[in-house]
Design goal:
CATH superfamily: MFS general substrate transporter like domains
Shape: globular
Number of helices: 15
CATH topology: Growth Hormone, Chain: A
Structural class: mainly alpha
Order of helices and strands: HHHHHHHHHHHHHHH
Number of strands: 0
Strand content: under 5%
Helix content: over 70%
CATH architecture: Up-down Bundle
């Protein structure tokens, strides 16, 4: 008699599921430090543009720069973070990054205390953002390499995916939490919260077991960079959508007299996390380039909807589609990029590849600020949609060149 609920799982299936669950738990135990880091990033994200623009009285370009300067620091420190993870160890890299994140909270406290002197307050804020950017690069790179060291290179895509889930899950939680803290307790309370999170993360990381440093051939960084260059360009194109939403969604809502701008960041993060959870195996099953192409197309559609949105509900839908589309771009192209270098240089490859995320976010803020100033806030999302459309073309070209056997680094 046939089982109405389908075939019963075999003992081999049960063992495989237990192993998979064990691997996932090991990964989550490490990428939780990425969650802490991006909580320190997400908490002030929705309030700082408004603080700089409306409370301190600076332009929308400066409001965008205040967010983007963090990514400049991340960009500059990412290669060093990769080399540090390869040579000294990812655990030590993560712990240094967590300390930097905590210190950025102290700068935010000082920013709040000097708000009556706008130039000084902004200067302190920018320095704190630079410190936070340094911490972000070291924790994000170190956590991925730490996770791979614990579960093996065959699970690279899974580690990168879970690291991203914690990243945008933290942003989704952090944005409304920051708004609530600012309304009830003020900007200084946000600084205290960030300082406490960095210290708590450092203490927790100190109790985790480290992993051995991988020995072997280490490629010069310029060679690593040339290998991952086309994949990094794709990542930069896809990141423009997130950068535009993170930097200007609050001011876009204000310009339309809409409320609950932070909800857009939450929806973006929720769809990002949900997509990675539901479609976790698509990269393994279909390949990185095919997944990246579909992801760029979905992100482009979401950004176009944001550009044309006549009301906040359609804007939320656009943010949701953008989050769903952006979700798999980093791991899909990242798996292809990291596989191009020897194991001892994979930290450097990850750092070089991630540089393009930082570069995109660092450029997007000021550039989108110029676009907003000249043409209005909706045009910011059109600009990001065009970047995502270019991402579709690039990944199709990469996939085609790969099938013909041509060296990808030559593109």
């Amino acid at each position: 008699m046939q089982n109405p609920h389908g075939p019963l799982p075999t003992s081999g299936d049960l063992v495989s599921r237990r192993q998979d669950a064990s691997i996932t738990l090991q990964i989550v135990a490490i990428v939780s430090f990425t969650f802490i880091t991006y909580l320190t990033i997400g908490i002030p994200l929705a309030i700082l543009p408004g603080y700089v623009h409306t409370q301190l009285g600076f332009s929308s370009v400066m409001a965008g720069f205040a967010i983007s300067v963090q990514y400049v620091a991340t960009l500059l420190s990412r290669p060093l973070a990769g080399r540090m993870a390869d040579s000294v160890g990812p655990k030590q890299t993560v712990m240094i990054g967590l300390i930097a994140c905590g210190i950025s909270g102290a700068f935010l406290i000082a920013t709040a205390l000097t708000r009556h002197i706008p130039e000084l307050s902004l200067t302190i804020l920018l320095v704190g953002r630079l410190v936070l950017g340094f911490g972000e690069s070291w924790v994000a790179t170190g956590a991925i390499m730490w996770g791979i060291g614990r579960v093996g290179n065959t699970h690279t895509a899974k580690v990168i995916s879970w690291n991203g889930i914690t990243t945008y899950g933290a942003l989704a939680i952090g944005a409304p939490l920051g708004v609530l803290l600012e309304r009830t307790e003020g900007l200084a309370a946000i600084g205290i919260t960030i300082l406490s999170l960095g210290l708590a993360g450092f203490i927790l990381a100190s109790f985790k077991a480290s992993v051995p440093v991988v020995h072997g051939e280490r490629m010069p960084f310029r060679h690593v960079l040339s290998r991952v260059l086309p994949h990094g360009i794709g990542l930069a194109l896809g990141s423009a959508g997130f950068g535009s939403i993170a930097t200007f969604i609050t001011l876009f809502y204000l310009s339309r007299n809409w409320s609950n701008a932070a909800l857009s960041l939450t929806v973006f993060g929720a769809l990002f996390v949900g997509t990675r959870l539901v479609f976790a195996n698509t990269i393994k099953n279909y390949g990185g380039f095919r997944v990246a192409t579909a992801s760029f197309a979905i992100e482009c559609a979401g950004l176009l909807l944001l550009w044309l949105a006549p009301d906040p509900w359609l804007a939320l839908t656009g943010a949701a589609l953008t989050g769903a589309g952006f979700a798999l771009i980093f791991p899909a192209l990242g798996v292809e990029a990291v596989g191009l270098v020897p194991p001892a240089s994979r930290g450097a490859a990850l750092g070089a590849y991630s540089v393009f995320l930082d570069l995109s976010l660092g450029v997007t803020g000021p550039l989108a600020g110029l676009i907003a100033g000249e043409f209005g806030y909706p045009q910011v999302f059109l600009f990001a949609a065009l970047a995502a459309g270019c991402g579709v073309a690039l990944t199709l070209a990469l996939s085609s060149r790969g099938k013909r056997g041509a060296p990808l680094a030559a593109i």
